[in-house]
Every structure is written in structure tokens, then in C-alpha cells.
Amino acid sequence: MQVVDAIVVGGGPAGSTCAWKLREAGLDVIVLDRATFPRHKLCAGWVTPETLSDLQLDPQDYPLSLMTFDELHLNWKALTVKLKSRQHSIRRFEFDDFLLRRAGVRVLQHKVCEIQRDGGEHIIDGKFRARFLIGAGGTACPVYRTYFQERNPRSSMLQTATYEQEFAYDWKDARCRLWFFDNGLPGYAWYVPKANGYINVGLGAMADKLKHQGGHVREHWRSFVDKLQRKGLVSYDNFHPTGYSYYLRGKVDVIRDRNTYIVGDAVGLATRDMCEGIGPAVKSGLLAADAIVAGAEYSLAELSYFTGGGLTSKILERKFVGQRITTPA
């Protein structure tokens, strides 16, 4: 049996960030993930300057695909607005692998099935033992299911449904474009160019609202692709989009159980306005590591519910989530 100080279940940005900081503090850490890295990860893949700062990454020093947008082109029916907002696009295939390698810890391909407590330690599948356990395995995280699901049931009103594809493409338009609420979609669609000849296109919606409309994201996909082709943004005929789901930030009562922590999408931390999850995942990983190393309180109070700010964010939250959900103070 392998015995370490901490086990991180999940090698995405939340898990790798937490493992990085724990290793810097001198802990012996392993990361368990069911996938082999680099692994295909669907994601529109934009990160904020604040997130890169949290990761201590200078955009000029990042050695892989990165593009910078100084404005976003927001479309709502006939209205187009240029929003000054610096963002960066990355490829998750590269980005997650880079962060995990930088963490400098052992990474093992392993699907976690059984987690048991033995005194003050955890045993995973009879093969791994550690004092600290960090659940960073996304929406289906086994640590969340084992220790937190009953106390933190997820709200269907905060569930998103996403349909997208990333592919090699010689794009000509370098602008990041978003279309809100087209054809009644309770969400938005995106066109995100990426460096070195890639692009991500997709759409996401609030699953509960979409269900009440009697629709599905794949039914909106065809009209969205037609729009891209009419506008001359994408001329492509090999679309094979894939869907997945995750949760926006809600009221979370329990994120720590003694020496067990959950971070990132295992908590459900994506922002209410833009459904952005990388930034909150990174911050939660840092906070969990600080709680373990320095004995600090593990609290999400400093995490914002919004990617942007002000009136625009409030309007988007109301449109996406609805007035039945309110943001706690």
C-alpha cells in the first residue's frame, strides 16, 4: 500500500493547483485520475488575468497555446456590444497537463471506487493511504459522493447542459464572440479562436429551464452551426459535438469534513453570469491547500459569484438562473 501525506482525486485545475501548493509546503502528494494526461477535455477554455495571476503564470511565459482578447463581442438579437474585458483562451488538452506537470507530484491513472476512513486517515481501494484527502474529481467526484452528497445536495436549477466541439481550423476572425438567448436558448453560444490553429464552438444552457421548454441543447446546435456558416466564421462539415453537465455556484453548507476537502466542480463553483469554472476551481484549490498547510479556515466567502461585475452580471444571472435563486450575501 502506498502511504502519503495527501491524496488529490482529480487532476484538473483545482486538483493540480492544490497539489502544487501542498508539494511546495513539503507534503508528499499523489494525484489519482481515471484519465491519462494529456487528456481531451471539452471547454470553451477562457481564463481571466486574475486566474493566471493566482497560478503565478505570466501570459508571455506560458509555453503553449494562448490568445489574448481585449474585448468580447456580445450579441443579443440585433444588438452587438463590444465589452472591454481582457480574457485569454487556452486549450484544456495542454493547459491541464501543463499545470499537473508543474505541480511536481506523482500522478497515477486510477479510477477511485471505494473510500474508507481508518482512524484519522483515508484508504482508497485498499491501495493508497493518506491523512488528507482532496476531492477534485469534477461533478461526478467520488469524494463528493462518499462524504458530501447527502449534506450538499445539488439543485437542478443550477445545472448547466453544454454541447461543444474543439477542432483544428484555420480561422480568419480572431474575435471572441458570444450570442445570448438565440431562439429561446436559456444560455449562450460561443465562438472562441485559439492559438496555433484551433477553435472551440459550442453552446450552454440552464438544464432546468431547457427541460421546461421541452428542448435539448442538441436541437439548438444545428441552428447555431448554420449561423456560423452564414456569417462566414466557420466553413466546416465534420461536426461531432459532445455534451456534458456541471453546476453553478449555489449555497454550499459543507466543503470540509475533518481532513477531507472538496474543490472546483466537485463543489459546484462556476460563476452565475458566464458559467466560468476555471477561475473558481483554481481559487478553491489554493484555499484548500492553505487550510491544510497553515490551518486556515476553509471558506469560499472570498470567491465571487460572477466573472464580470455590475449590472451586466446581475442581468445575466437573472436570465440564466431565474429569480427563484438569490445570491447569498
Average pLDDT across residues? 92
Largest sheet: 8 strands, mixed
Number of strands: 16
CATH superfamily of the domain at 2-50 and 91-153 and 249-304: FAD/NAD(P)-binding domain
Number of helices: 8
Query: For the record, what CATH class of the domain at 2-50 and 91-153 and 249-304 applies?
Result: Alpha Beta
Indicate the structural class.
alpha/beta
Span of the ends, CA to CA: 45 Å
Level-2 CATH architecture of the domain at 2-50 and 91-153 and 249-304? 3-Layer(bba) Sandwich
Helix percentage range: 25-40%
Described by the principal axes of the CA atoms, the overall outline is globular
Tags for this model:
329 residues, eight-stranded mixed β-sheet, FAD/NAD(P)-binding domain, 16 strands, 31% strand, alpha/beta
Helices and strands in order:
Layout: E1 2-9, H1 13-24, E2 29-33, E3 46-47, H2 49-54, E4 66-76, E5 79-90, H3 92-103, E6 106-109, E7 115-118, E8 121-124, E9 128-135, H4 142-148, E10 159-168, E11 176-180, E12 187-194, E13 198-206, H5 207-212, H6 217-230, E14 242-247, E15 256-257, E16 260-262, H7 278-294, H8 310-320
Parallel strand pairs: 1-2, 1-9, 2-6, 4-11, 9-16
Antiparallel strand pairs: 3-5, 4-5, 7-8, 8-9, 10-13, 10-14, 11-12, 12-13, 15-16
Helix pairs in contact: 1-3, 1-7
